[in-house]
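Entry 14. Structure prediction run on the chain below.
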Amino acid sequence: MLVFLPFVAALAIATASDRSRGSHAVIAGGASVIGLAIVTAQAFQPSQQVVVSWAPALGLNLTIMADPLGLFFAGLILGIGLLVVIYAHGYLGKEEPTGRFLAFLMLFQGAMVGIVLSGNVLMTLVFWELTSLASFLLIGFWRDRADARQGARMALAVTGGGGLALIAGLVLLGQAAGSYDLSTILARGDMVRASPFYGPMLALILIGCFTKSAQFPFHFWLPHAMAAPTPVSAYLHSATMVKAGVFLIARLWPVLAGTDAFFYAVATTGLVTMVFGAAVALFRTDLKAILAYSTISQLGLMVMLLGFSTAVAVVAAVFHILNHATFKAALFMNAGTIDHETGTRDITRLGGLARLMPVSAVLGTLAAAAMAGLPPLNGFISKEMMLEQALHTGWAGQDWLVPLLAAVGATLSVAYSLRYAVLIYFGRARGETPKLAHEPGAAMTVPPVVLVALVVAIGLLPMPLAGPLVMAVASAVIAGPAPETHLALWHGINPALGASLIAVVGGAVLLWRLAPLAAAHARAALPDAKRLFDVSVAGAVAAARRITTALHVPSLQRALFVTFAVIVVLGVEAIVTAPVGPGTRPPLPATPVALVAWALLVVATGAVVASHRRRFVALILVSVVGLVIALGFVHFSAPDLALTQIAVEVVTILLLLLALNMMPKRPPRLSTTPHRVRDGLVAGVGGVLAGSAAWAFLRRSPPDPISAFHWANSYSGGGGTNVVNVTLVDFRAFDTLGEIIVLGVAGLVIYALLETAARGAAGRRLRAWREDTPHSPERHPVMFVMATRILLPLALLVGSYIFLRGHNQPGGGFIAALLFAIAILLQFLASGYDWTDARRRFGEHQMIGWGVLIAVATGAGAFVFGRPFLTSAFGYVHVPLVGEVELATAILFDLGVASVVVGAVLLTLAQLSHVAQRAARAVDEAGEDAA
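Output returned:
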């Protein structure tokens, strides 16, 4: 329930998009509160794992692993998520689409909760990619801004590319461990480290983690993600996406850590990132950019500690993850408040705001001091723990290198933190701001107050408030008892304290001498990561275009010829190298009816080729081919296939008639005679090969046909006597689910392609199009109109009957949906699109979306009863005067199938009609101009 709760909230918000802003916030906040309550209750219980079997043969199970590490991150995600929802309610303007924003935010929250609670690495991958998609939507929320669109694309490209590497790495991990179950993998660390896959596996997994957590050199996407609204930035930086990589390193620490390769790859990357991010943050002028690079630096600190591969360093990393979440969320909210109330984030235009915004000044200063590592705040303790571990770590035999660079990073962090607080809130005002600064409302004040209170409380009472939590989480990371570590402000005079004092003094000096340093930095010709990324993308696109142009000549005929020629060559090679002997099944006798049907099929097929330039004639001949195939299904006792074939033929012919009406009735000749001879030879050889292959298969009996299982278990296992329908909605329901998703996507693609028909070159051709065939003087013939309106309820009744009986008799959701679509198509043809559309009560997009959701929800409902995904259930009830009636959950799945099919057909119809209407308007306008 905890994993799916945010997704339910996202769906509820999206469904209630027309409700008030307050109702959206209540749904999102309520889901976070309920989730927090579940996490809190589970925290006092022993670690447990819930396994729901999905595809056990593939090692794919829905496994929830509720251990201290997962619950710790889930608590951060849900707790800070609740504060972000409250903050966003005050931050976003009343004209902003809060429903869309909070739906995306809940989707993001659900994906993150899924990552941290997944007990199967394949399940982790699903949620991992979902975070990239959700972050893309959130970063690009203000889609009218170019920087938001570019930032979203950049984040998706970098993290999505890293996700591809992670997929390969985790698959190798599962192969090396012999299981994709996380608990099993964590118990086989020695086996994994001894595997020959360890090196490439480690590299691929770390690429995925480093791209997600913005580690050098994959850091550049994060600053450009600041184009998102500040609530997104606060959430993304403190508890969610950028922490996902850190989490995965911590999760897999018992398996991957303990080798030189892990130390040098992880600790070095973290150390370089910490220093680099801090150095860049010192010279940025945008408040969110300063905080973005400070996040990069702080993430590097966490990664470095995990890379040290010692238990004490893990304790320090876990404690800093907690501390960073509190002060970084508070700082982003503080920066958002300044931007919201002053109208600028430029630090060079800000100053002296403590007089106008005293509460915000206190909150921002305390949070910045925690980030700088000043006592008595929580950041001071974890910074000292980091310096202590750095002092005991050598690199390539150099014991001084890691402590020196860690101290440099700490010094720079003090400098950029002091710069943030001092330049914004103290000293003189540096210019007028676009808006008169003042304190925000309660919605934007309470969340940072809560976070800063935690910063101070944990700093003053670290052991009582955070000690047990940190020890439990560190034990889960280590997969053993954590070392006894006393969290306290004072550990006596020691080298770590000296390094900390040097960092504070050095940071103050850097701030004092910042002006000449900033001038030198501005003069330096430093490489810009964004520019390098843009150049790389442009180069990759140009190279891909050159390769594509070289390999795929822009000629459809030539491309098809090459494709079929290769297929023919491969077929000939297969027959030559492995000849097929005579089969064992005797052929069936050919009846006179079958011979006539075969001859009609051959003649119709040849006529299609001969009359291909007469499009309407060719279309009628194609329908004859389809009709003969349907009769063949009837002959071989396949009524479901026959019904489906006939319905598909009718729908296809009707839609193609609409499309062909706006195309030239006799297209120009595109091939020369030699080319037609060449193509005919390839087609003839290919036809002979395909027929020979079909003949070879038909002459043989499969050794163990799967159909035997379907015949034997259709009624006992699926509750239906129609084996075809039971196979589609039960035995092979996962295939059907994928097919309806593809059908829905195809409908949306048709919508997108035809939506552009009025623009560009296509629009110019459309405006120049004129009718080239005579039309009936009666636009909507009365007899046709009345006949279709009388037939509509009858067709819907027949479709409903076929739908309801599909589990036991020929029929089902797909055939019924096609009948519904035919009935509506006939209304359009008879009465026109406008008349039909005015009486429509459901949108095509909604029908596709709800159909997929109904099908998925039906399959997921099996989890409630501990059964695999898409397992159906059935039973029988006695209805008075009717008798025994079967009830099966498969009918709900079939309802989803029907909804998607009807939606896709009507969406195609609507777009074709819109194109026709645009063309008609163009003709009318041309006539008026001529008049």
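The longest helix spans residues 890-930.
Filed with the rest of this week's runs.
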